[in-house]
């Protein structure tokens, strides 16, 4: 990546790969026509910040190259120094999935790093929590009104007596009834709830509130008829009975959770989910590479790392299959992509609908460019396994967890897969947070960090201006992750208690 | 309907239609084998409450008739006095939609009733509110954490100064980004949000909180670029800036809303949505017929009434098409059913998944029986119009508002269609409530009213025991609706503030 050191008002662009024929403008507010870069390139259009400038003259049909990859083809003649707009670029077809399975994969061996620890809550099943939360699962949305009321009372009247418990969280969702429970795709939301229920941050305490007549039965959720941890509202004597039973069960569990203490745990117990949202053209050159660097450190320390977001990976999947640890993992990766292709086709989704309007404003031309910037988060480690949506991870190392790109859906599914720490990069800015696990927000631009000083945890914007390296920010993030996982530092989202609702991925119909 | 007057411990059954060859057991706890009914019928099986007994002997393949309609065919020989279980009944094919369009429809003319009024909040657009609420719409789920925080502060710090305002409600939902916004079916969630935003209970005050980079732009929601009523978080100076801007805009609107007063309005301004949830075999003989009686009174008084729930109507649609006001309405009805058939087929939904396990425990054998009991809510009025999901009503009279049967999805869509009062019948029991409009809950059984005395507003169970008529309960409900709409009486859901989350119907894929 070629960038020059920050000099106030010096025109700057970032060219990521030596073969790139386009670069993005770094300067805040963009640069105007006739601006001359130190290298001699002169702009022949106004170019907003993060948007692309052509480094050479391109004739019609010539490939436009960024990250060393083709992001599209010129639709008309593009002069050297011109601004490249969405309408100038034709969208390439995505990689043909069947051609991606190779006999052998060439993965880079990562040097292990030892001795890193964090202070976590050890669970009986071997998992480790980064928080100590009473989680109350719902089997159906019908109970939300009652449960929200009860949780407010639990927080007010009971929680203060159990100071070692961080929070009480209702796992509200829109699933459970009025859904095609026997459809093939119903497996996804069902296993998601089953896995959320046993999240490492709940300390092995399971508590489910159901109605009693819903399609998703509590027995199915618990895979048993044991009603010990279940409150069914239809079995209670009115609203008062419901409240009393929920409060009583909650207190029993709070008592046990309150006895837990943080102990020194190997960093290999961290399960870190990576995601981006509100991306811009800087995501792929500042925040995401820094996260990728930190991801490699985590993997080298033995931890588990997820990257996700199918629609933002699909167009760059040919760069991932060679990184699969073996052919089996390759096949799993291709299978998830195929499933998603069919799912989108069935619903007649328009491929150009991603990037979002905000992404485009931020300089991202199309989903190929977005994907190339998105997968940088995964670093360089081998992909040891691929998880279907909501599936629990059973290995250490880098995983591809197939999820939609939707921030709150991806976050919910990564939690179900066992994530106990979330890293979220953002260019345009989002106040995203999760109640179940800490969310570290990394900004791609200095301006966002300045504007949202009380929401952004780590700023990777200095990479664009040349005041910090990818390694600097990656290392800073790595150490910050350890402090957050240990409860020593609080993310802004947790400080303000800004938490997005869970959102299950249910590809099956409503009934 | 033949029922005998209640005599303690007298074995009772309900036969709905003279041609029925099955009846349901009324007695709490059910009746045991060898029980003799006053008419001489003797049970040859134990039969739980609400479950069916055969009134004659049925040979294999013979139709089983309830509500005067075929609910299925005997799979084996059924002796007179035997219990009819789900496995005894084969599911009939649903009515062929193309055969339902008739040249002429024969609708019953209803005698108008005049002079009924309620105390409502008149709006400039001609609609009338039953509450005076500050509604804050979201364009995307990303803002939920910030908005929930802000709404709590608005309620605590501002609302007490504006005593004429009933509530501040955040319209949180899971739509707005990470969705196939250009897919055909995206029209449904988009118009739902657009119509929710202008709900009659919001007094014409529109306030939208968005992020700034989401796919569902606030300009699209408002159909204008006017930003006066919009807060975009990405334009604010951090979390503090967001809070300040939201609170300031909220206060301006609270000031205006606080000046509003209830005035005497014609009952023709009521827009009542009907729904059932947690149904049992009594739903179709107690609560739903009483609601149907009240629905006819409403229509006769000039009001608008919706009934909904496609999957619970589909198998009885041949009883509805003849009630359509004209051929155009017939076609619209058939079109919505066809759309839903395809939607379920595309998702490989199993038709036997409705009724829910709770419905079945309550005695409902299959979706045909459930549908026959469900449509009784619609009374006998002509169907003047059919609404696609989330579409706004423009006429008075009885409407079929096509929605999924899922309680919270149906409720959300009926709100979007303009519902300002909701009537909800339940047999198994649900604590269902909505923040945007009052929800009146009607129980089908005495036992539920006794058990949930602090949640059920109206009990229709006395109809089964013969201590009240359908007309008695229907009239009671009609007057209670007027009192609730006038703010003179509070439903239990509003008393406890038990409110289900909104849930948009998005048949298009996530991306
Ligand atoms: Ca992303
Ligand atoms: Ca995302
Ligand atoms: Ca229903
Ligand atoms: Ca329903
Ligand atoms: Ca909520």
Automatic annotation (TrEMBL), chains A, B:
GO terms for biological process: D-galacturonate catabolic process; galactarate catabolic process. One of its GO terms (molecular function) is galactarate dehydratase activity. InterPro entries: GarD-like, GD_AH_C, GD_AH_second, SAF, SAF_UxaA/GarD, UxaA_altronate/galactarate_dh. The keyword Lyase applies. Keywords: Lyase. Belongs to the UxaA family. This is Galactarate dehydratase. The lineage of its organism: Bacteria, Bacillati, Bacillota, Bacilli, Bacillales.
């Amino acid at each position: 990546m070629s960038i020059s050191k920050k000099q106030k008002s010096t025109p700057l662009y970032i060219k990521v790969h030596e073969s790139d024929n386009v670069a993005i403008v770094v300067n805040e507010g963009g640069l105007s026509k006739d601006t001359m870069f130190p290298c001699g390139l002169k702009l022949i259009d106004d170019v907003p910040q993060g948007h692309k400038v052509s480094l050479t003259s391109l004739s019609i049909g010539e490939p436009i190259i960024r990250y060393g990859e083709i992001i599209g083809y010129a639709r008309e003649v593009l002069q050297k120094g011109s601004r490249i707009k969405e309408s100038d670029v034709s969208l390439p077809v995505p990689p043909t999935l069947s051609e991606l399975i190779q006999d052998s994969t060439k993965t880079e061996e990562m040097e292990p790093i030892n001795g890193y620890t964090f202070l976590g809550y050890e669970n009986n099943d071997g998992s480790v929590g980064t928080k100590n939360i009473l989680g109350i699962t719902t089997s159906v949305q019908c109970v939300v009104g009652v449960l929200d009321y009860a949780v407010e009372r639990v927080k007010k009247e009971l929680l203060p007596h159990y100071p070692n418990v961080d929070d009480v969280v209702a796992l509200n969702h829109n699933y459970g009834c009025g859904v095609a429970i026997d459809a093939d795709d119903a497996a996804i939301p069902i296993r998601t709830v089953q896995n959320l229920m046993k999240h490492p941050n709940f300390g092995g305490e399971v508590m489910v509130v159901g109605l009693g007549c819903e399609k998703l039965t509590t027995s199915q959720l618990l895979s048993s008829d044991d009603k010990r941890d279940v409150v069914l509202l239809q079995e209670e004597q009115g609203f008062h009975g419901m409240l009393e039973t929920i409060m009583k069960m909650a207190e029993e569990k709070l008592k046990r959770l309150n006895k837990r203490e943080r102990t020194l745990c190997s960093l290999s117990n961290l399960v870190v989910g990576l995601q981006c949202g509100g991306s811009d053209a800087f995501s792929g050159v500042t925040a995401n590479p820094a996260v990728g660097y930190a991801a490699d450190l985590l993997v080298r320390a033995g931890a588990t790392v997820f990257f996700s977001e199918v629609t933002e990976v699909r167009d760059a999947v040919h760069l991932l299959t060679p990184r699969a640890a073996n052919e089996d993992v390759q096949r799993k990766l291709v299978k998830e992509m195929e499933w998603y292709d069919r799912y989108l086709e069935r619903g007649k989704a328009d491929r150009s609908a991603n990037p979002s309007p905000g992404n485009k404003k931020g300089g991202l031309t199309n989903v190929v460019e977005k994907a190339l910037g998105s997968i940088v988060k995964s670093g360089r480690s081998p992909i040891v396994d691929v998880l279907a949506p909501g599936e629990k991870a059973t290995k250490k190392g880098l995983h591809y967890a197939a999820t939609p790109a939707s921030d709150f859906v991806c976050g919910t599914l990564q939690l179900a897969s066992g994530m106990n720490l979330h890293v979220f990069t953002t260019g345009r800015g989002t106040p995203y947070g999760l109640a179940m696990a800490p969310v570290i927000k990394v900004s791609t631009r200095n301006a966002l960090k300045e504007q949202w000083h009380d929401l952004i945890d780590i700023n990777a914007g200095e990479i664009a201006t040349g005041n910090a390296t990818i390694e600097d920010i990656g290392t800073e993030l790595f150490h910050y992750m350890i402090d957050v996982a240990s409860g020593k530092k609080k993310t802004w989202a947790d400080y303000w208690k800004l938490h997005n609702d869970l959102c299950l991925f249910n590809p099956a119909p409503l009934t």
